[in-house]
Structure formats: C-alpha cells, structure tokens
Amino acid sequence: MNRSLKQIGRADSRAKPEPFNGSGFFRSALRNSGPDHWQSHWEAKLPGARRVVQDDWDHPDKDSWIANLDACVAEADAPIVLIAHSLACALVAHWAGASEHVAKVHSALLVAPADVDSELHTPPVARCFAPMPLDLLPFKSLVLASQDDPYVEPLRAHFFASCWYSGFLDVGALGHVNSDSHLGDWDEGRALLEQILPPS
C-alpha cells in the first residue's frame, strides 16, 4: 500500500489531548480490552472517560450491545467522543443508524475496524454484526488502520472509511492495534484523538 496516498496527515506523537467539557466513551472489542490495551491506558488518564460495559463480552449480541451503548450516550453530557476498537467499530456504525441520540456525539475514533462480513478475517461469533453498515456517519470520525491487521485488509478498512465519510490514516504495521501490539499509552493515537476532540 502507498501510505502517502492513504494518509490524511501526520500528527505530532508528542502531543497530548486537551481536556474537554463532555464525555468520552470507550467501546471495546470482542472479549473486552485487558489492562495492557491502549484503551485501558487511555481510560485511566482521559478526563470524563467511561467504558461501555457489555453483559457478555465473549458472545456478542448486536441488539443488546447497541442498547447498552445507547443508554450510556443518553445519560451522558454532550459533547461525546466515541473511541472504538475492532468489532466495536461495527457497533458504532449500527448504533449511529438507529439511535435518537446521535446529535450528542461530536466525533468518533474508529481503530482497526474488524471486517464482520469476511469469514476469512473474523470468527463466526462476530457475524451477528454483519452486514457492516455503509451509510455516512452523522458525526466527525477518523478511521485508523494497520497494514498487517489479521481482522481486516487495509483497502477494506479504507473502503469503510470512504462510505462513512471518515478521515483515514494508515498507522503502519501494528497488527490488530491491540494488547499484542505492545503500544502502551500509544502516544501517536492520543495525538490523533486530539485532532477530533471538541473545542475546549
């Protein structure tokens, strides 16, 4: 892949997100995000951050996951920033097409969107989120994709971003951008998040 053609811009990896008066919601992937996942690091450090907890992380149910996300958004203060990884990117796309509360969301960071339509890339348990919604998202969004993600081909991730009218950035060879990627606080991702935060 020609990274320069896919990239929307390089962020200063030393930059840190500024606090904002609102809520940040983390949407974790299948089996949740462990303590070494960058989402867990961010959740502990970002002001107003909250993880949307699902009833069963190992056996996802699309309707109940959407309902739980919707309940959290409904009770939160706007503006809201959604931070989703893997299967949760499909969840955000489904939720955005069904919720009455989308106006409360300022933006979404969508990292390593798992290709729920592909039997070659995602397990059967994720198929309940197929087909992947391809409608334009009603809020600003940024898709971050890895060159060697086993759960989605880079061009497929770019296709999702194009359909959602999201920004897109190739973040290099980071696998599934999860705990196995050993990113720690993932400063580059934090700097990219800053680009889509509401004005402070």
Structure write-up:
- Helix content is 28%, strand content 16%.
- It has 200 residues and is α/β, with parallel strands linked by helices.
- The chain has one domain (3-194): Rossmann fold (3-Layer(aba) Sandwich), CATH 3.40.50.1820.
- Strands 2-1-3-4-5-6 form a 6-stranded parallel β-sheet, sandwiched between helices.
- It is globular, with a radius of gyration of 15 Å.
Please outline the helices and strands.
Elements: H1 3-6, E1 23-27, H2 38-45, E2 49-51, H3 62-75, E3 80-85, H4 87-96, E4 105-111, E5 140-145, H5 154-164, E6 167-170, H6 187-194
Parallel strand pairs: 1-2, 1-3, 3-4, 4-5, 5-6
Helix pairs in contact: 3-4
* Total number of beta strands: 6
- Give the N-terminus to C-terminus distance in angstroms: 36 Å
CATH-level-2 architecture: 3-Layer(aba) Sandwich
Largest sheet: 6 strands, parallel
Overall geometry comes to: globular
Listing every helix as H and every strand as E from the N terminus to the C terminus, the arrangement reads HEHEHEHEEHEH
Under CATH at level 1, the class stands as: Alpha Beta
Q: In terms of per-residue confidence, which ranges show pLDDT below 50 for 5 or more consecutive residues? A: 1-23, 27-31
Number of helices: 6
Please indicate the percent range of residues in DSSP E strands (runs of 2 or more): 15-25%
Rounded to an integer in angstroms, the radius of gyration calculated over CA atoms is 15 Å
Helix/strand-derived category reads alpha/beta
CATH topology heading = Rossmann fold
Going across the major beta sheet, what is the strand order? 2-1-3-4-5-6
CATH superfamily: Alpha/Beta hydrolase fold, catalytic domain
Task: Look at the structure and give the mean pLDDT.
Answer: 83
Proportion of helical residues: 25-40%
